[in-house]
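Minutes, project check-in
Item: structure for the 321-residue chain
Input as provided by the requester:
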Amino acid sequence: MGAPSQSTSDKKATRDAYGEALVELGGSRPDIVVLEADLSGSTKTADFKKHFPERFFNVGVAEQNLVGHAAGFALAGYVPFASSFAMFLSGRAWEIVRNSVVYPKLNVKLVASHGGITVGEDGASHQCIEDFGTMRVIPEMTVICPSDFNETKQVIHAIAAYQGPVYVRVGRPAIPLIHRDNYQFQIGKAEVLSEGKDVCIIACGIMVSEAMIAVEALKAKGISASLLNMATIKPLDKEAILAKAKECGAIVTAEEHNVIGGLGSAVSEFLSEEFPVPIIKVGMKDSFGKSGTWGGLMDYFGLRSKDIVSHAELAISKKLK
């Protein structure tokens, strides 16, 4: 089995994978319906509309209604996928998500596009960096942020088969594909992309690709790093995290999200009770984004492989003696 690798010239957007997976599901699952808030071109649900117009519903710019309609379809026995930008699906509709979907444990799939600062030029108002936190604090909610196009397709098929409410974040930009052998996504299970003993990097979304580069840069410095792709932010793969904390003694988390409330917070909350080790977080440092190219913003806010490397060295320096 070959080690996972990526090619910077081979890129696709995770939102495109969502659109493709929906069409695949629509052909085999007549119970699948798709709901939109007038953003189907951006969220890529327009492809489903072309193939299955009788099962596509545009509620207009009304995210609360979008989620409420999805709840109704779930009660009627359908499997609804409701989509909008992350800022609006996790923010504007939060109370409806909590009380109309998750509290009654309805089988609604919320897939939010344009998450994080890689929305780019749309600016801080549309750059959702709080959604992991706002969604994971809802009891019994499942929260997922896949690492690339290939994993996203698996995620969408997996949540269609899963019974219960789920929130998935997908992104706008084309990002590197990660080439794996025989990988099968499972809700709540981390993917081990690299084995090492000096530090463990735990990443999700676009930051997995950056972390893979960081692992190689650390290797060149004589540092052996493990890497976990933690696509499921809730429920966490606690077993994998605990094993790596004991093996490495230092953790770095990496996410395109505020360092408060997201993946890093979830890992810290767990390990502080089970096996405290130094944990250094790469992410948005409690600040709003800005308007700019998505690549430029990743550089500006310190979400690059070099930043993971420096945080890893800091985490190692803080190991308990």
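Outcome recorded: The mean pLDDT is 96.
No further action items on this chain.
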